[in-house]
Amino acid sequence: MFLALPSPISPPLPLVSNINMSKKNNTRKSNVNGVSKKTQTLVKTEDIEDAVSFFSKDETHKLRAVLLDWYDHNHRVLPWRATSNHSNLKEEEEEVEKRAYGVWVSEIMLQQTRVQTVIAYYNRWMLKWPTIHHLANASLEEVNEIWAGLGYYRRARFLLEGAKKIVAEGGAIPKTASLLRKIPGIGDYTSGAIASIAFKEAVPVVDGNVIRVIARLRAVSENPKDSAIIKRFWEIAAQLVDPLRPGDFNQALMELGATVCTPLNPNCSSCPASEFCHALSIAKRDSTAAVTDYPIKGVKVKQRSDFSAVCVVELLGDEKQSSSKFVLVKRPDEGLLAGLWEFPSVLVAGETAPLARRKATDCFLKKNLKIDIKKTCDIVLREDVGEFVHIFSHIRLKLYVELLVLQLKGKDDHFFKSEDDETITWKCVDSNALSSMGLTTSVRKVYNMVQKFKQKKLPSKDTPPPTKKRNRTTKKN
Ligand code: SF4
Protein backbone atom coordinates (compact mmCIF):
# COMPACT_ATOMS: atom_id res chain seq x y z
CA MET A 1 0.00 0.00 0.00
CA PHE A 2 1.92 2.95 -1.29
CA LEU A 3 0.83 6.56 -1.51
CA ALA A 4 1.87 8.22 -4.72
CA LEU A 5 2.30 11.91 -5.26
CA PRO A 6 1.83 12.44 -8.95
CA SER A 7 2.54 16.14 -8.99
CA PRO A 8 5.45 18.09 -7.55
CA ILE A 9 3.04 20.56 -6.07
CA SER A 10 1.11 17.95 -4.16
CA PRO A 11 0.95 18.47 -0.41
CA PRO A 12 2.86 16.30 2.03
CA LEU A 13 1.35 12.92 2.59
CA PRO A 14 2.16 10.14 5.01
CA LEU A 15 4.33 7.18 4.13
CA VAL A 16 2.20 4.70 5.98
CA SER A 17 -1.41 4.65 6.89
CA ASN A 18 -1.47 6.05 10.38
CA ILE A 19 -4.49 7.86 9.06
CA ASN A 20 -7.80 6.17 9.54
CA MET A 21 -8.70 4.49 6.29
CA SER A 22 -11.84 2.58 6.88
CA LYS A 23 -12.93 0.19 4.17
CA LYS A 24 -16.48 0.92 5.18
CA ASN A 25 -16.54 4.54 4.20
CA ASN A 26 -13.21 4.75 2.42
CA THR A 27 -12.37 8.10 3.90
CA ARG A 28 -9.40 9.50 5.71
CA LYS A 29 -10.68 10.84 8.97
CA SER A 30 -7.75 12.59 10.55
CA ASN A 31 -5.94 15.73 9.62
CA VAL A 32 -2.33 14.61 9.27
CA ASN A 33 0.51 16.90 10.17
CA GLY A 34 -0.81 20.10 8.79
CA VAL A 35 -2.35 18.76 5.59
CA SER A 36 -5.19 21.08 4.81
CA LYS A 37 -8.80 19.92 4.82
CA LYS A 38 -9.03 20.73 1.15
CA THR A 39 -6.37 18.19 0.33
CA GLN A 40 -7.98 15.52 2.42
CA THR A 41 -10.07 14.26 -0.40
CA LEU A 42 -11.84 10.97 -0.24
CA VAL A 43 -9.38 8.27 -1.11
CA LYS A 44 -10.56 4.80 -1.96
CA THR A 45 -8.58 2.06 -0.29
CA GLU A 46 -8.19 0.27 -3.62
CA ASP A 47 -6.73 3.43 -5.14
CA ILE A 48 -4.10 3.57 -2.45
CA GLU A 49 -3.27 -0.09 -2.74
CA ASP A 50 -3.04 0.21 -6.50
CA ALA A 51 -0.96 3.33 -6.34
CA VAL A 52 1.89 2.81 -8.73
CA SER A 53 4.75 3.72 -6.43
CA PHE A 54 6.26 6.60 -4.57
CA PHE A 55 8.22 7.59 -7.64
CA SER A 56 6.78 6.90 -11.05
CA LYS A 57 8.87 4.79 -13.42
CA ASP A 58 9.72 7.84 -15.44
CA GLU A 59 10.76 9.81 -12.37
CA THR A 60 12.83 6.89 -11.12
CA HIS A 61 14.78 6.68 -14.39
CA LYS A 62 15.35 10.41 -14.54
CA LEU A 63 16.37 10.63 -10.90
CA ARG A 64 18.88 7.80 -11.33
CA ALA A 65 20.37 9.52 -14.36
CA VAL A 66 20.74 12.96 -12.81
CA LEU A 67 22.10 11.64 -9.52
CA LEU A 68 24.66 9.37 -11.16
CA ASP A 69 25.79 12.14 -13.48
CA TRP A 70 26.07 14.54 -10.57
CA TYR A 71 27.97 11.95 -8.52
CA ASP A 72 30.42 11.24 -11.35
CA HIS A 73 31.36 14.90 -11.51
CA ASN A 74 31.10 15.95 -7.88
CA HIS A 75 31.88 13.12 -5.50
CA ARG A 76 34.47 13.64 -2.83
CA VAL A 77 37.73 11.77 -3.20
CA LEU A 78 37.95 9.56 -0.13
CA PRO A 79 40.50 6.85 0.65
CA TRP A 80 37.93 4.04 0.76
CA ARG A 81 36.71 4.98 -2.70
CA ALA A 82 40.12 4.48 -4.31
CA THR A 83 40.30 1.71 -6.91
CA SER A 84 43.24 0.35 -8.82
CA ASN A 85 43.58 -1.21 -12.26
CA HIS A 86 43.85 -4.96 -12.65
CA SER A 87 44.98 -7.01 -15.60
CA ASN A 88 43.54 -10.44 -14.91
CA LEU A 89 40.66 -12.18 -13.16
CA LYS A 90 42.64 -13.02 -10.01
CA GLU A 91 43.70 -9.42 -9.56
CA GLU A 92 40.13 -8.31 -10.17
CA GLU A 93 38.84 -10.67 -7.48
CA GLU A 94 41.50 -9.48 -5.04
CA GLU A 95 40.55 -5.89 -5.81
CA VAL A 96 36.86 -6.62 -5.11
CA GLU A 97 37.73 -8.30 -1.79
CA LYS A 98 39.93 -5.37 -0.86
CA ARG A 99 37.15 -2.96 -1.76
CA ALA A 100 34.61 -4.91 0.28
CA TYR A 101 36.92 -4.87 3.30
CA GLY A 102 37.60 -1.13 2.86
CA VAL A 103 33.90 -0.32 2.52
CA TRP A 104 33.14 -2.40 5.58
CA VAL A 105 35.77 -0.69 7.74
CA SER A 106 34.88 2.79 6.51
CA GLU A 107 31.12 2.34 6.87
CA ILE A 108 31.49 1.09 10.43
CA MET A 109 33.78 4.00 11.26
CA LEU A 110 31.43 6.50 9.62
CA GLN A 111 28.49 5.54 11.82
CA GLN A 112 27.95 8.52 14.15
CA THR A 113 31.28 10.01 13.05
CA ARG A 114 32.21 12.78 10.61
CA VAL A 115 34.01 11.96 7.36
CA GLN A 116 36.89 14.30 8.14
CA THR A 117 37.53 12.54 11.45
CA VAL A 118 37.29 9.09 9.92
CA ILE A 119 39.88 9.63 7.16
CA ALA A 120 42.89 9.59 9.51
CA TYR A 121 41.55 6.63 11.47
CA TYR A 122 40.81 4.71 8.28
CA ASN A 123 44.29 5.31 6.90
CA ARG A 124 45.95 4.20 10.15
CA TRP A 125 43.73 1.13 10.30
CA MET A 126 44.47 0.06 6.72
CA LEU A 127 48.17 0.58 7.25
CA LYS A 128 48.11 -1.76 10.22
CA TRP A 129 45.60 -4.29 8.88
CA PRO A 130 45.49 -3.98 5.07
CA THR A 131 43.37 -7.13 4.63
CA ILE A 132 40.76 -9.00 6.58
CA HIS A 133 43.36 -11.70 7.25
CA HIS A 134 45.64 -9.22 8.99
CA LEU A 135 42.73 -7.95 11.06
CA ALA A 136 41.68 -11.46 12.08
CA ASN A 137 45.08 -11.92 13.75
CA ALA A 138 44.77 -8.76 15.84
CA SER A 139 43.85 -8.64 19.51
CA LEU A 140 41.00 -6.59 20.95
CA GLU A 141 43.59 -4.56 22.81
CA GLU A 142 45.30 -3.56 19.54
CA VAL A 143 42.00 -2.81 17.85
CA ASN A 144 40.87 -0.59 20.72
CA GLU A 145 44.21 1.16 20.59
CA ILE A 146 43.73 2.20 16.94
CA TRP A 147 40.06 2.98 17.54
CA ALA A 148 40.71 5.15 20.60
CA GLY A 149 38.90 8.48 20.31
CA LEU A 150 36.35 7.36 17.70
CA GLY A 151 33.78 6.38 20.32
CA TYR A 152 31.14 3.64 20.19
CA TYR A 153 33.80 1.01 20.84
CA ARG A 154 31.42 -1.89 20.27
CA ARG A 155 31.84 -1.15 16.58
CA ALA A 156 35.55 -1.99 16.75
CA ARG A 157 34.91 -5.19 18.67
CA PHE A 158 32.33 -6.31 16.13
CA LEU A 159 34.69 -5.55 13.25
CA LEU A 160 37.30 -7.80 14.85
CA GLU A 161 34.79 -10.53 15.63
CA GLY A 162 33.44 -10.32 12.08
CA ALA A 163 36.91 -10.62 10.57
CA LYS A 164 37.72 -13.62 12.75
CA LYS A 165 34.47 -15.34 11.77
CA ILE A 166 34.99 -14.75 8.05
CA VAL A 167 38.59 -15.95 8.13
CA ALA A 168 37.64 -19.00 10.21
CA GLU A 169 35.03 -19.83 7.56
CA GLY A 170 37.40 -19.62 4.61
CA GLY A 171 38.36 -15.96 4.36
CA ALA A 172 36.03 -14.73 1.61
CA ILE A 173 33.75 -11.84 2.47
CA PRO A 174 30.11 -12.85 1.72
CA LYS A 175 28.91 -11.30 -1.52
CA THR A 176 25.24 -10.65 -0.83
CA ALA A 177 23.50 -8.43 1.67
CA SER A 178 21.56 -11.33 3.18
CA LEU A 179 24.74 -13.36 3.82
CA LEU A 180 26.61 -10.32 5.09
CA ARG A 181 23.94 -9.74 7.73
CA LYS A 182 25.03 -12.98 9.40
CA ILE A 183 28.38 -11.39 10.34
CA PRO A 184 28.57 -9.81 13.82
CA GLY A 185 28.04 -6.06 13.71
CA ILE A 186 26.79 -5.99 10.10
CA GLY A 187 23.20 -4.82 9.86
CA ASP A 188 20.96 -3.69 7.01
CA TYR A 189 22.92 -0.51 6.35
CA THR A 190 26.44 -1.98 6.25
CA SER A 191 25.39 -5.09 4.36
CA GLY A 192 23.67 -2.91 1.75
CA ALA A 193 26.74 -0.71 1.42
CA ILE A 194 29.23 -3.58 1.05
CA ALA A 195 27.00 -5.62 -1.27
CA SER A 196 26.11 -2.73 -3.56
CA ILE A 197 29.45 -0.90 -3.64
CA ALA A 198 31.86 -3.85 -3.73
CA PHE A 199 29.75 -6.63 -5.25
CA LYS A 200 27.29 -4.56 -7.32
CA GLU A 201 24.20 -6.18 -5.83
CA ALA A 202 21.17 -3.97 -6.48
CA VAL A 203 20.21 -3.46 -2.84
CA PRO A 204 19.45 -0.16 -1.13
CA VAL A 205 21.28 1.68 1.62
CA VAL A 206 19.39 3.92 4.01
CA ASP A 207 21.12 6.20 6.48
CA GLY A 208 20.19 9.58 7.93
CA ASN A 209 21.26 11.35 4.74
CA VAL A 210 19.12 9.13 2.53
CA ILE A 211 16.12 9.55 4.80
CA ARG A 212 16.50 13.32 4.71
CA VAL A 213 16.80 13.46 0.91
CA ILE A 214 13.84 11.16 0.28
CA ALA A 215 11.75 12.89 2.95
CA ARG A 216 12.33 16.20 1.17
CA LEU A 217 11.94 14.86 -2.36
CA ARG A 218 8.50 13.54 -1.42
CA ALA A 219 7.68 15.97 1.41
CA VAL A 220 7.13 13.10 3.81
CA SER A 221 5.25 14.26 6.84
CA GLU A 222 5.89 11.29 9.09
CA ASN A 223 8.25 10.72 11.99
CA PRO A 224 11.40 9.32 10.34
CA LYS A 225 12.38 7.60 13.60
CA ASP A 226 9.28 5.43 13.58
CA SER A 227 10.22 1.85 12.66
CA ALA A 228 7.28 1.44 10.25
CA ILE A 229 8.33 4.63 8.46
CA ILE A 230 11.95 3.56 8.31
CA LYS A 231 10.78 0.34 6.67
CA ARG A 232 8.99 2.45 4.06
CA PHE A 233 12.15 4.42 3.37
CA TRP A 234 13.96 1.16 2.72
CA GLU A 235 11.27 0.16 0.26
CA ILE A 236 11.47 3.48 -1.54
CA ALA A 237 15.27 3.31 -1.66
CA ALA A 238 15.00 -0.24 -3.02
CA GLN A 239 12.78 1.05 -5.77
CA LEU A 240 15.17 3.84 -6.65
CA VAL A 241 18.48 1.99 -6.65
CA ASP A 242 20.04 1.75 -10.08
CA PRO A 243 20.38 -1.91 -11.12
CA LEU A 244 23.48 -1.28 -13.22
CA ARG A 245 25.37 0.97 -10.84
CA PRO A 246 23.84 0.25 -7.42
CA GLY A 247 26.93 1.18 -5.41
CA ASP A 248 27.42 4.50 -7.15
CA PHE A 249 23.73 5.31 -6.91
CA ASN A 250 23.62 4.59 -3.18
CA GLN A 251 26.70 6.69 -2.64
CA ALA A 252 25.21 9.45 -4.78
CA LEU A 253 22.11 9.60 -2.61
CA MET A 254 24.16 9.64 0.58
CA GLU A 255 26.62 12.14 -0.87
CA LEU A 256 23.77 14.45 -1.88
CA GLY A 257 22.49 14.39 1.70
CA ALA A 258 25.95 14.96 3.13
CA THR A 259 27.03 17.81 0.86
CA VAL A 260 23.98 19.48 -0.75
CA CYS A 261 20.76 18.50 0.99
CA THR A 262 22.23 19.13 4.43
CA PRO A 263 20.10 19.24 7.59
CA LEU A 264 20.12 23.00 8.16
CA ASN A 265 21.36 24.70 4.96
CA PRO A 266 20.37 22.73 1.89
CA ASN A 267 21.72 24.21 -1.32
CA CYS A 268 18.63 23.73 -3.47
CA SER A 269 19.89 25.99 -6.25
CA SER A 270 22.68 23.54 -7.05
CA CYS A 271 20.76 20.36 -6.35
CA PRO A 272 20.55 17.93 -9.27
CA ALA A 273 17.26 16.56 -7.94
CA SER A 274 15.46 19.86 -7.47
CA GLU A 275 12.96 19.21 -10.27
CA PHE A 276 11.68 16.18 -8.34
CA CYS A 277 11.58 17.87 -4.97
CA HIS A 278 8.15 18.32 -3.41
CA ALA A 279 9.50 20.09 -0.34
CA LEU A 280 11.03 22.72 -2.62
CA SER A 281 7.79 23.11 -4.56
CA ILE A 282 5.89 23.63 -1.33
CA ALA A 283 8.42 26.14 -0.04
CA LYS A 284 8.22 28.10 -3.30
CA ARG A 285 4.51 28.59 -3.12
CA ASP A 286 4.16 28.94 0.64
CA SER A 287 6.36 31.54 2.31
CA THR A 288 5.75 30.01 5.74
CA ALA A 289 7.13 26.65 4.64
CA ALA A 290 10.77 25.62 4.25
CA VAL A 291 12.44 22.55 2.84
CA THR A 292 14.00 22.06 6.27
CA ASP A 293 10.51 21.32 7.61
CA TYR A 294 11.26 17.85 6.25
CA PRO A 295 11.86 15.37 7.66
CA ILE A 296 9.82 16.28 10.69
CA LYS A 297 11.72 16.23 13.96
CA GLY A 298 11.22 13.05 15.91
CA VAL A 299 10.86 13.06 19.67
CA LYS A 300 14.28 12.87 21.26
CA VAL A 301 15.01 9.93 23.50
CA LYS A 302 15.59 11.17 27.02
CA GLN A 303 19.14 10.62 28.22
CA ARG A 304 19.88 8.96 31.53
CA SER A 305 22.03 10.95 33.93
CA ASP A 306 24.89 9.10 35.60
CA PHE A 307 27.54 10.39 37.99
CA SER A 308 30.98 8.94 38.41
CA ALA A 309 33.79 9.55 40.90
CA VAL A 310 37.04 9.10 38.97
CA CYS A 311 40.23 8.70 40.96
CA VAL A 312 43.58 9.04 39.23
CA VAL A 313 45.76 6.96 41.54
CA GLU A 314 49.44 7.75 41.19
CA LEU A 315 51.80 5.43 43.05
CA LEU A 316 55.12 7.07 43.75
CA GLY A 317 58.24 5.07 42.96
CA ASP A 318 60.81 4.04 45.54
CA GLU A 319 64.52 3.32 45.04
CA LYS A 320 63.68 0.36 42.83
CA GLN A 321 60.85 2.01 40.93
CA SER A 322 62.36 5.09 39.39
CA SER A 323 59.17 6.66 38.14
CA SER A 324 55.67 6.80 39.48
CA LYS A 325 52.89 4.70 38.02
CA PHE A 326 49.22 5.20 37.35
CA VAL A 327 46.58 2.61 38.08
CA LEU A 328 44.32 1.61 35.19
CA VAL A 329 41.33 -0.68 35.44
CA LYS A 330 39.82 -2.65 32.59
CA ARG A 331 36.10 -2.26 32.14
CA PRO A 332 33.93 -5.40 31.98
CA ASP A 333 33.75 -7.25 28.66
CA GLU A 334 30.09 -6.37 28.24
CA GLY A 335 28.26 -3.06 28.34
CA LEU A 336 29.39 0.51 27.91
CA LEU A 337 33.02 0.91 26.72
CA ALA A 338 33.49 -2.85 27.12
CA GLY A 339 37.06 -4.02 27.65
CA LEU A 340 38.61 -0.55 27.64
CA TRP A 341 41.06 0.87 30.17
CA GLU A 342 40.14 3.70 32.49
CA PHE A 343 41.18 5.23 35.78
CA PRO A 344 39.50 3.67 38.82
CA SER A 345 35.99 5.01 38.93
CA VAL A 346 32.80 4.31 40.75
CA LEU A 347 29.24 5.32 40.02
CA VAL A 348 27.75 7.55 42.71
CA ALA A 349 24.18 8.52 43.34
CA GLY A 350 23.69 11.97 41.81
CA GLU A 351 25.45 15.17 42.82
CA THR A 352 27.22 13.75 45.86
CA ALA A 353 29.47 15.70 48.21
CA PRO A 354 33.25 15.29 47.91
CA LEU A 355 33.45 13.35 51.16
CA ALA A 356 30.88 10.81 50.04
CA ARG A 357 32.69 10.41 46.72
CA ARG A 358 35.97 9.77 48.50
CA LYS A 359 34.35 7.21 50.72
CA ALA A 360 32.97 5.38 47.67
CA THR A 361 36.37 5.57 45.97
CA ASP A 362 38.24 4.27 49.05
CA CYS A 363 35.82 1.40 49.27
CA PHE A 364 36.34 0.55 45.58
CA LEU A 365 40.14 0.70 45.86
CA LYS A 366 40.18 -1.49 48.94
CA LYS A 367 37.72 -4.05 47.70
CA ASN A 368 38.92 -4.40 44.12
CA LEU A 369 42.57 -3.34 44.07
CA LYS A 370 43.58 -4.18 47.65
CA ILE A 371 44.74 -0.61 48.09
CA ASP A 372 43.98 0.22 51.69
CA ILE A 373 44.65 3.91 51.90
CA LYS A 374 44.79 3.93 55.64
CA LYS A 375 46.89 0.82 56.23
CA THR A 376 49.13 0.09 53.26
CA CYS A 377 49.84 3.57 51.91
CA ASP A 378 50.71 7.09 52.89
CA ILE A 379 48.67 9.77 51.20
CA VAL A 380 51.04 12.27 49.66
CA LEU A 381 48.36 14.30 47.97
CA ARG A 382 44.64 14.12 47.54
CA GLU A 383 42.86 16.90 45.67
CA ASP A 384 39.72 17.37 43.64
CA VAL A 385 40.86 18.35 40.17
CA GLY A 386 37.60 19.23 38.50
CA GLU A 387 34.53 17.84 36.82
CA PHE A 388 33.07 17.61 33.35
CA VAL A 389 30.19 16.05 31.46
CA HIS A 390 30.67 13.41 28.81
CA ILE A 391 27.75 12.64 26.52
CA PHE A 392 27.09 9.16 25.25
CA SER A 393 24.16 8.50 22.92
CA HIS A 394 21.86 7.54 25.79
CA ILE A 395 23.76 8.67 28.89
CA ARG A 396 24.81 12.03 30.23
CA LEU A 397 27.74 11.14 32.44
CA LYS A 398 29.13 13.65 34.91
CA LEU A 399 32.65 12.82 36.03
CA TYR A 400 34.18 14.14 39.24
CA VAL A 401 37.93 13.86 38.96
CA GLU A 402 40.34 13.64 41.86
CA LEU A 403 44.06 13.01 42.03
CA LEU A 404 45.34 10.65 44.70
CA VAL A 405 49.11 10.39 45.06
CA LEU A 406 50.21 7.52 47.25
CA GLN A 407 53.45 6.27 48.66
CA LEU A 408 53.34 2.57 49.41
CA LYS A 409 54.40 1.50 52.84
CA GLY A 410 57.05 -1.17 53.16
CA LYS A 411 58.50 -3.13 50.27
CA ASP A 412 55.27 -4.49 48.91
CA ASP A 413 55.57 -3.88 45.18
CA HIS A 414 52.73 -6.11 43.96
CA PHE A 415 50.88 -2.95 42.95
CA PHE A 416 53.32 -2.47 40.14
CA LYS A 417 52.35 -5.72 38.48
CA SER A 418 49.27 -6.29 36.41
CA GLU A 419 46.49 -8.10 38.14
CA ASP A 420 43.79 -10.20 36.60
CA ASP A 421 41.54 -11.99 39.01
CA GLU A 422 38.01 -13.16 38.56
CA THR A 423 36.38 -9.86 39.27
CA ILE A 424 38.68 -7.19 37.91
CA THR A 425 41.68 -6.61 35.65
CA TRP A 426 44.07 -3.77 36.34
CA LYS A 427 47.60 -2.65 35.71
CA CYS A 428 50.06 0.10 36.55
CA VAL A 429 51.65 2.13 33.77
CA ASP A 430 54.08 5.03 33.79
CA SER A 431 53.24 8.38 32.26
CA ASN A 432 55.13 7.63 29.02
CA ALA A 433 53.10 4.48 28.42
CA LEU A 434 49.94 6.30 29.38
CA SER A 435 50.58 9.11 26.92
CA SER A 436 51.07 6.71 24.03
CA MET A 437 48.18 4.40 24.89
CA GLY A 438 44.95 4.44 22.95
CA LEU A 439 42.56 5.86 25.52
CA THR A 440 38.94 6.83 25.19
CA THR A 441 38.23 10.53 24.84
CA SER A 442 36.96 10.89 28.39
CA VAL A 443 39.90 9.00 29.93
CA ARG A 444 42.32 11.14 27.93
CA LYS A 445 40.48 14.24 29.16
CA VAL A 446 40.76 13.09 32.78
CA TYR A 447 44.50 12.50 32.35
CA ASN A 448 45.02 15.91 30.71
CA MET A 449 43.08 17.58 33.53
CA VAL A 450 45.34 15.95 36.09
CA GLN A 451 48.50 16.86 34.18
CA LYS A 452 47.40 20.50 33.94
CA PHE A 453 46.52 20.54 37.61
CA LYS A 454 49.94 19.21 38.55
CA GLN A 455 51.75 21.71 36.36
CA LYS A 456 49.84 24.54 37.92
CA LYS A 457 49.87 23.42 41.53
CA LEU A 458 53.02 21.42 42.03
CA PRO A 459 56.59 22.72 41.80
CA SER A 460 57.93 19.45 40.46
CA LYS A 461 55.89 16.72 38.90
CA ASP A 462 57.83 13.93 40.62
CA THR A 463 57.80 15.37 44.11
CA PRO A 464 54.35 16.65 44.91
CA PRO A 465 54.27 18.42 48.26
CA PRO A 466 52.09 17.05 51.02
CA THR A 467 48.81 18.76 51.70
CA LYS A 468 48.51 20.57 55.02
CA LYS A 469 45.62 18.41 56.07
CA ARG A 470 47.41 15.18 55.46
CA ASN A 471 50.94 16.00 56.52
CA ARG A 472 50.67 13.66 59.45
CA THR A 473 50.68 10.75 57.05
CA THR A 474 53.16 12.17 54.58
CA LYS A 475 56.27 10.20 53.95
CA LYS A 476 59.31 11.95 52.56
CA ASN A 477 61.15 10.38 49.66
S1 SF4 B 1 15.93 20.62 -3.86
FE1 SF4 B 1 16.73 21.20 -1.87
S2 SF4 B 1 15.48 20.11 -0.38
FE2 SF4 B 1 15.09 19.19 -2.38
S3 SF4 B 1 16.48 17.43 -2.42
FE3 SF4 B 1 17.54 19.14 -3.40
S4 SF4 B 1 18.71 20.14 -1.75
FE4 SF4 B 1 17.19 18.78 -0.81
Secondary structure layout:
Blueprint: H1 45-50, H2 57-74, H3 89-110, H4 115-128, H5 132-136, H6 140-147, H7 154-168, H8 177-180, H9 188-197, H10 208-217, H11 227-240, H12 246-259, H13 278-285, E1 304-315, E2 325-330, E3 341-342, E4 345-348, H14 354-369, E5 377-391, E6 395-408, E7 419-420, E8 425-429, H15 431-436, H16 441-457
Parallel strand pairs: 1-6
Antiparallel strand pairs: 1-2, 1-4, 2-3, 2-8, 5-6, 7-8
Helix pairs in contact: 2-12, 3-4, 3-9, 9-12, 10-11, 10-12
The chain binds iron/sulfur cluster.
The site of iron/sulfur cluster (SF4) has 14 residues, from helix 10 and helix 13.
Please provide a brief summary of the model.
The protein is 39% helix and 13% strand. It is built from 16 helices and eight strands.
* Alpha plus pi helix count: 16
Mean residue pLDDT: 81
Tell me which ligands are bound.
iron/sulfur cluster
Order of helices and strands: HHHHHHHHHHHHHEEEEHEEEEHH
Helix fraction bin:
25-40%
Distance between the termini: 79 Å
Oligomeric category: single chain
Architecture per CATH nomenclature, i.e. the level-2 architecture of the largest domain: Orthogonal Bundle
- The number of strands is 8
The Rg value, from CA coordinates, equals: 29 Å
Low-pLDDT ranges: 1-13, 16-52, 466-477
Protein structure class: alpha+beta
Strand fraction: 5-15%
What global shape is seen? globular
Count the domains. Answer: 2
User: In CATH's first tier, which class of the largest domain applies?
Assistant: Mainly Alpha
Q: What is the CATH homologous superfamily assignment of the largest domain?
A: Hypothetical protein, domain 2
Pfam family, one: HhH-GPD
InterPro entries: DNA_glycosylase, HhH-GPD_domain, HhH_base_excis_C, MIG/MutY, MutY_C, NUDIX_hydrolase-like_dom_sf
Domain HhH-GPD: 109-259
Function: Adenine glycosylase active on G-A mispairs. Involved in oxidative DNA damage repair. Initiates repair of A*oxoG to C*G by removing the inappropriately paired adenine base from the DNA backbone. Possesses both adenine and 2-OH-A DNA glycosylase activities.
